[in-house]
Amino acid sequence: AARGVGQALARNPLPIVIPCHRVIGSNGSLGGFGGGVEIKEFLLRLEQAPSVKVPAKCQKR
Fold this sequence. Notes:
Largest sheet: none
Structural class: mainly alpha
Number of helices: 2
Distance between the termini: 10 Å
Radius of gyration: 12 Å
Number of domains: 1
Helix content: 25-40%
């Protein structure tokens, strides 16, 4: 499932309108981004969106 999500995000034609930069890794890492991790981090800081890790008990398996 994670690979499919990554492929869908990579094909996102409107990355600012469809905010794929908000997707983070299950371990809390920023992961990848088509525009580069530096741009992803910049966008998250610009939005003041905290990167929080979802507790394992709240994750769907």
